[in-house]
Amino acid sequence: MKDSSKVGVGVIGTGRIGTVHIKHLCQNIPNAEVLSICSLDTKIAKTLSERYYIPQITTHFNQLLDNSEIDAVVVASSTDTHIEICQAAANARKHIFCEKPIALELKAIDDTLSVVKESGVKLQVGFNRRFDVNFLRLQELIRKGEIGVPHILRITSRDPSPPPIEYLKVSGGIFLDMTIHDFDMARFLIGDEIDEIYAVGNVNIDPEIGQVGDFDTAVITLRFKNGILGTIDNSRQAVYGYDQRVEVFGSKGMVSVGNSVPDTITSTLKNGSITSLPQHFFIERYKQAYLLEMESFIQSIIVDTKPKVTGKDGKIPIQIGYAALKSIEENRPVSLSEIQ
Amino acid sequence: MKDSSKVGVGVIGTGRIGTVHIKHLCQNIPNAEVLSICSLDTKIAKTLSERYYIPQITTHFNQLLDNSEIDAVVVASSTDTHIEICQAAANARKHIFCEKPIALELKAIDDTLSVVKESGVKLQVGFNRRFDVNFLRLQELIRKGEIGVPHILRITSRDPSPPPIEYLKVSGGIFLDMTIHDFDMARFLIGDEIDEIYAVGNVNIDPEIGQVGDFDTAVITLRFKNGILGTIDNSRQAVYGYDQRVEVFGSKGMVSVGNSVPDTITSTLKNGSITSLPQHFFIERYKQAYLLEMESFIQSIIVDTKPKVTGKDGKIPIQIGYAALKSIEENRPVSLSEIQ
Amino acid sequence: MKDSSKVGVGVIGTGRIGTVHIKHLCQNIPNAEVLSICSLDTKIAKTLSERYYIPQITTHFNQLLDNSEIDAVVVASSTDTHIEICQAAANARKHIFCEKPIALELKAIDDTLSVVKESGVKLQVGFNRRFDVNFLRLQELIRKGEIGVPHILRITSRDPSPPPIEYLKVSGGIFLDMTIHDFDMARFLIGDEIDEIYAVGNVNIDPEIGQVGDFDTAVITLRFKNGILGTIDNSRQAVYGYDQRVEVFGSKGMVSVGNSVPDTITSTLKNGSITSLPQHFFIERYKQAYLLEMESFIQSIIVDTKPKVTGKDGKIPIQIGYAALKSIEENRPVSLSEIQ
Amino acid sequence: MKDSSKVGVGVIGTGRIGTVHIKHLCQNIPNAEVLSICSLDTKIAKTLSERYYIPQITTHFNQLLDNSEIDAVVVASSTDTHIEICQAAANARKHIFCEKPIALELKAIDDTLSVVKESGVKLQVGFNRRFDVNFLRLQELIRKGEIGVPHILRITSRDPSPPPIEYLKVSGGIFLDMTIHDFDMARFLIGDEIDEIYAVGNVNIDPEIGQVGDFDTAVITLRFKNGILGTIDNSRQAVYGYDQRVEVFGSKGMVSVGNSVPDTITSTLKNGSITSLPQHFFIERYKQAYLLEMESFIQSIIVDTKPKVTGKDGKIPIQIGYAALKSIEENRPVSLSEIQ
Q1: pLDDT for C275-317, tens place per residue?
Q2: Of C282, C300, D253, D255, which is most buried with the most CB atoms under 10 A?
Q3: Cα end-to-end distance, chain D, whole Å
Q4: Interchain proximity A255–B270, CB inside 8 Å
Q5: Domains defined along chain B, listed by start
Q6: Which of C192, C206, C219 to mutate to test the interface with A (most CBs of A within 10 A)?
Q7: ipTM for the predicted complex
C-alpha cells in the first residue's frame, strides 16, 4: 500500500540515466516512492525491483500509466519515444520529468507542450547542469550583481571521448546532442534569450564523424537580445577528461567555474608540480546534480510550484541547435527568428 | 527473517556519528543489514527504526548482543562506555567496529584488546581519515616511492570552533581528543612508529579552555624510529573552516593534500581574486570516508581479513597523546617508551 | 667616440615606450649604444640624455639619420610618422625597429616593406608579446608537439581601462589598436595563417566609444588555413586589471598561460580565500618582454639573422583587423583574401 | 669628480653577492655611485670596473676606506673578514652595509656593534628576504591586523642542493648558515622576540654532512615571548627547487606566501595537470629583494633614518642559532637567555 504522504513515481527506461534516477528516488528522496518501472530489459528491471523493493515491473508504459497510485513519471527511455510517452502521461494526468531532448523536431515539441499545457500537469526537462552546485552558485552570483552587468560569456565544454558512430548518426549532430547543454547553460546564466548565433566546426578526431555529416570540434558565437556576447567551444575528445568550465565577465569583474577534480593531491617532483585531472565524465561530474534535479522535481509537485526547468527551456536549446546547424551550413550568422 | 548472505549489524549509540553509520549501513552497503539499534534516546531510535526498517530497538546493549542474528556491532556510544561494551561484544562473539578512542586509559585498552584477541573477533577502530580519498592516495603514493625516502612530515589540523567546555573537561585534552587523529595519520602515512615527541601549547581562543587545564593551540615535533622528522600544528578555531592539510617531503620530491572546497567558483573583482573556503567540519569533509571505513569493516568480515585499522592502531595514538601531555607538562621531549 | 664593437642606435620618440627602449638599450644591453635621440619634447630629451650619457639630441629624425655612427633606429614616435621615418631610415641604410603598427593603411605598409626590402636593412616590428617568457614557452611547447595537433585556440585579452576618446578617434578602432596584438599572438602560436574571421562587438563601457564608431567589447571567431578554430574575446575595461590569457587545446591535451600576479600572497579569511589581482597593464606585465625584444633586435644585427618579428608579421595583423571591421559592418564571416 | 648629490660607495668583495650589489648600485640606484671596489681577484675587479666605469680598484680595504669621497661601504667579503672591516669602516666614518652574518661569534658581534654605535655610522645587515615583495606585504598585512592576533607561524625553507662540504665545515652549521634567515623572518613577521627554541635534526642527503657534525634536515619549534608558537622545517636538498613558504595563522584567519614560479604555464595532459617548479635558488627568487635592500640602505643614508635591518637584527638570529645548536646537542628546549 502506497504511503499517501509520498509522491508515487513510475520510471520509464532503465538505461544508465534511468538507473541513476531510480537509485536517487529510492535511496535519497524520502518524499518519493517508486511504484513501477517500465523496461524492455526484464532482467535489469527485475534486479532493480529487488534491490529497491519496487512493487511493479512493466514492459509497456501504458501499463505503468494505468497505475492510479502513480503521480509522476520519469521518462528516461530513448529520445524517439519521448513524445508519445509524454503526451500519454499528460493525458493520464501524471506529472512528467523528461530527459533532454524532448524531441529533435520542433513541431513535435510544440505539440507535446500543448498537450502538457492543456492537461495541467507539470513538466520538467532534464537539464541537469542547472543543478550542479557550481553553476547554481554562479547563476546566483550573477543574478545578485556580483559582476555588475554581464558583458561576455565563455563556455568551454569538451567530452573525454566521442560516442559510437551509430549513436552519432541518430543524435541530431553535435549541436543538438552536446552543445544543447551549453545553450541551456547560456540562457540559464544570462537570464536572457539568444538573438543570433554563428557556428564553425571541424573534424579533427575521427574522419568517420565527418562522413556522417557531423563535426567533433566547434566554436560558436552567441549574441543575446540584450547585447551580451558569448562564445562556446566544444570538442568530442579532451584526452585529460571532461572539461566543463564557464566564465562570465562583467562591468564589476568576472566569475568563473573550474573543473572538479577527484582529489586535492599535488605532487611536486623534479619535472613539475602535478595535480589531478578533472573527473572523467558527466556521471562523475554531475553526480549530485542528478540527485538535486530529481529532488527539485518531486518538491515542485509537493508544494505545487513551477518546475525549475520548464517545457520552454526544453524547446529553445533545440531551436538554437538548428540555428547553429543552419549557420554552419550557410556560413553566416543566423537569427533565432529564422528557426520555427 | 535475516538474509543469510548479509552481515547482521547492531548499532549502539544514535548520536551524530551513530546516525551516520546507520544511514550508511542501511542505504549504501548492500552486504550489511542493521537488525538492532541500542539507544538511550527512544524517540531518535524509533525514528531511525522506521526510516530504515530496522526490526529491533533496545535500550541496553546486552539485549542487542543477545540477538543471535547479529554478527557485528558498531560502538558509537560515549567514550566511557566503550570498554564495557567492547568486552561484552567480544565475549558474545560479535565483530566490533569501535569509535575512537577505545578508552582514555591505556590499561583499559590493553585489557580490552586482550579480551578481543582471545575471543577471535575482529576489531576496527574508527580512524575515519585513513579512508579519506585524498589521504588514502597520499599514503599509496608514499608507499610506492613517489617521493623516494620521506624526510619531513607536516600536518596542519585545525577545527572551525572549539567544542563546549563541558565536553572539553572529559575529553582528555586536545592531544587525546583532537591531535589523536593526527598521530594516527602520521603513523598511517609514514608506516613507522614515533619514537619521541615534543609538544608546546598555548591558550589563545578562550581563557576557559586554559582554566580546565587544556590548550587550544599546539605545535608538536615528532621523531620517528627511522629518523623521519614531523611537525603538527593544531588550533581549536580556524575562522575560515576545517583546515586539514598534510605535506610529505622526501628525497625525490613532495606530495601534499590540500583542503576540500565545496565549489570551484572564483570571483575576480576589484579587491582580489576570491575562492571558496574549506568545507566546514569533519561531517562534510570526511563524509565519504565514514562510508568507506564502514564498507571496509563489513568487507573484512565477509572475506575474513584483518581490519584496516587494528586495535593496536587504536591504542598507540593514545599513548602518543600521553607522551605529548607529559612533554608539555615537563617541557621536554618525551620518549614513547616512557608511556606504558 | 663610439665603441666599434657595439651597435650604434638612434631612438626616435621619447614617449612612454620610447623611454622604456632607451632605458633598456643603455642599461641592460651591453652590445648597444644609444648615440642620439630625436624628440619634439626637448625637456624630456635633455633629461634622458643626461641620465644615460647620450651624446646627441635632435628634433628632426633626418639629423639623427645623418649620424654615420648610427647603425639602427628605434621608431617609437606616433603612428602617423612611422612610414616616412621607416622609409627614410631604410634609404639611409639603418636597421629599423618599428613600434606597431607600421601604418594603418595596407598600401602604405606595402610601399614601406618594398623600400625596406630594396635597401637590405633589417626591420623588426614591436609585437612585444612574442617575447613574453610565458607565450614564448607556450609557443615552444606547441611547436614541440606537447599537445599533439592543435584544434582550438582561445585568447582572452582585456585592458584595465579604455584610452582617452581623442586617442580612440585616430586609433583605427579596437581591432587595429588592441586586437592586433591578439591576431599576432594567434599567428605566432599556431604557426599558420588565418583564412576567415567573424567578429561581433558591443558598447558596454562608455557610450562615447560607440559615438566615435568604435566598440569596447568584442568576440571574434578565427578559422586558420589548416582548419584550426580560434576565439578571441576583448574588453576595454576589466576592473580587476590586465587580463591576458591564452589556451591551446589539441589532440594530446591543453596548454595555457594564466595572468601574472605581483605576489604569491593568499589571505584566507572569514569571507573567502583571496589572492592578488593580475599586474595592472602592459608596462608591468610585459616589462621583461620589452627588454627581450630589443635584445633580440640588436642580436639579429650583430649575428646577421632575420628578426624574430618581420615586416610581414607587421602587415598581416592589420589585414586581419580590416577583415574584422568588414565582418562587423556586414555581419558575416570575411575571408582574408577579400582584404588587399 | 664625484657627484656631490650622490652617495659615494665602496664595495669590498666581488664574489657572487658582491657582484650583484655592484650591478644594482651602478645600474639601478641613481642616488649611488660606486667609486671603488676592493677584491683579491684583480681580473674580476678589472672587468667590473670597466663595465660599470668604476674609477678605483684596490686590493686592501684600507685603501678603499682612505678614499674621502666614499660615504658608505658594502661588505661582501668572506665572513671571517667582516668584523675587522666593519670596525675599520666605522672608525673611518663610513656607513656600512654588511652581508650576514656579521660574525659567527657573539662576542665579536657585540664588540663590532659597540664600535659602530660609538662612531655614529649606520649599519644595515644583509637579511635580503625582508625586502622580498611577498614577505614585505605579508608583514604589512600582519601588522595591520588582517589576521587578528597571530597564533601560529609556519616556515618552510629548503634549498635545492647542499653547498660543498668544504664550505659546510666553516659555515657554523645549518642553523647559523641557513636557518638564520628563517630566524630573521620569524622575528620580522611576528615583531616579537623568540623566548625558547627546540630543534631536531637528521642526516638524510649526504652522510658526509653528518661526518662534519652537521645536519641536512631539521625541524624547529619556536616559542615567542608573547606566546605565539612557530615551526620551521629545513632541508638542504629539495629536488624541485628553492622552497620558501611562510604561513601565519591567527584569530581572524591565515595569510601565506607561496613559491614564485618562472611562468604561468599549465599543461593538462593525459597524466595530469602540470605547472612549473619554483625558481631555482636565492639569486632568482630574491633578485629584486637584493636591489630593494640596497636602495633602502642608500635611502637611509640620504634621508638619515635608521636602516631597516639593524645591527641588533644581525646579532639575534646568531644567538637563536646557538640556542638551536645547544637544543639539538642536549635534546631539550633552550631558552634564549641561556645564550650570551
Answers
A1: 999 998 998 999 999 999 999 999 999 999 999 999 999 999 9
A2: D255
A3: 47
A4: no
A5: 7-121 (3.40.50.720), 130-286+317-338 (3.30.360.10)
A6: C219
A7: 0.95
